[in-house]
Specification:
Length: 77
Amino acid sequence: MQQVLTGNKSIKISEELYRVAKWTAEAENRSIAGQVEFWAKIGRAVIDNPDLPVDFIRDTLIAKALNRSLAEPFMPE
């Protein structure tokens, strides 16, 4: 078991989940705790919205976290 610190709380997770979270967090520029939290948000959103595709939910959460000042306005062709 590994402990992941989130703010002033810690949770215990399996070594396997920790390893995958660490690898994914490095690839996506998140902390390990941030990665686990992101996965939890996706899981909660999937449960709350079973008719939506997981990829759509993931991409929506990523888009919501982006800096809006960097966004380009939609321009129909």
